[in-house]
UniProtKB/TrEMBL annotation:
This is Alpha/beta hydrolase. GO terms for molecular function: hydrolase activity. Keywords: Hydrolase. It comes from Pseudomonas lundensis. Signal peptide: none annotated. InterPro entries: AB_hydrolase_1 (IPR000073), AB_hydrolase_fold (IPR029058), Carboxylesterase_BioH (IPR050228). Residues 29-257 form the AB hydrolase-1 domain. The keyword Hydrolase applies. Coiled coil: none annotated. The lineage of its organism: Bacteria, Pseudomonadati, Pseudomonadota, Gammaproteobacteria, Pseudomonadales.
């Protein structure tokens, strides 16, 4: 499964590394939005779950991954600018669906609020509008580690919190990745954390009111940081919203164990493209405010 790789120019501002996985049997294209500190490599399992049922597009933010060498990093990117990049990529690849992970949900929701005409449905995974006590503690500890330049602390922090349910091998990869980022990536991370801690919860919900397409919010049962009960707060502003909980799973959903990966795949494909998801027979989607138990 080899992708078509391209580095795209976004209106002369950013150069974006993209990977386009085509499928002869697919009639729809989905674009995946990374979480904080993540790269295209973070979506390896998600890619396996979605392809070949869908054409899949992965990309790295200008400051991260394989986009990093192509950009000067003179300034920090807001979520709004990252949403602008996503909207441009949606147009370029004629994408029909969006799937985001973790804090990539901020970018995806900001883009969806612009009502891109091509997008038919979206999946927002491991995200909630609320910064609860557990997330507040995680962000504050992260900000402290960034201020001190403590790379070891940052590497352990993610594994001890959001990644606590990951297999040991994945934790090793996580630590190596997070503890060896470039200085500008830590600066970008610090900027995002400061923005999150200062942002207004009500405004995040208000912006979501502009989203008219069907949106599936999917969270892990054990995820105390972006909790399923907090995600349900999107039920009112996103009028065409659906919700799913993956049992016995934390923040990283399809990366944590085989059953979680299989169940996540089933519910996502059933929501996006039920005709091409025979494995999802027996799963039922529930409208606004209801949960699916997997």
């Amino acid at each position: 499964m080899k992708p078509e790789i391209a580095v795209l120019d976004i209106q002369g501002q950013y150069r974006i590394h993209t990977e386009h996985y085509r499928s002869e049997s697919a009639h729809r294209t989905i674009i995946l939005v990374n979480g904080s500190m993540s790269t295209t490599a973070s979506f390896a399992q998600t890619l396996k779950n979605l392809h070949p049922a869908l054409n899949v597009v992965l990309y790295d933010q200008p400051y991260a991954g394989q986009s990093k060498p192509h950009n000067p990093h003179h300034s920090l990117l807001t979520n709004e600018l990252e949403a602008h990049v996503l909207l441009e990529l949606i147009e370029h690849f004629n994408a029909h669906y969006v799937l985001s992970f973790s804090w990539g949900g901020l970018v995806a929701l900001a883009a969806l609020a612009e009502q891109p005409q091509r997008i038919e449905k979206a999946v927002i995974s491991s995200f909630s509008p609320a910064i609860n006590t557990a997330m507040q503690d995680y962000l504050e500890r992260g900000r402290h580690g960034l201020a001190r330049g403590d790379r070891t602390l940052l590497g352990h922090l993610v594994n001890d919190t959001l990644g606590k349910h990951l297999p040991h091998l994945f934790k090793r990869f996580n630590f190596r990745h997070i503890s060896t980022l470039a200085d500008h990536e830590y600066a970008q991370m610090h900027f995002h954390i400061d923005h999150l801690l200062a942002s207004d919860y009500a405004s995040r919900l208000k912006a979501a009111e502009r989203i008219a397409i069907p949106v599936l919010f999917i969270n892990g049962e054990w995820d105390e940081y972006t909790a399923a009960k907090d995600a349900r707060q999107f039920a009112h502003p996103v009028t065409n919203s659906q919700f799913a909980i993956v049992d016995n799973t934390g923040h990283f959903l399809d990366m944590e164990h085989t059953a979680a990966s299989r169940h996540t795949k089933s519910v996502v494909l059933d929501f996006l493209n039920p005709v091409q998801s025979p494995s999802s027979a027996g799963l039922t989607m529930t409208p606004s405010g209801e949960h699916i138990r997997l």
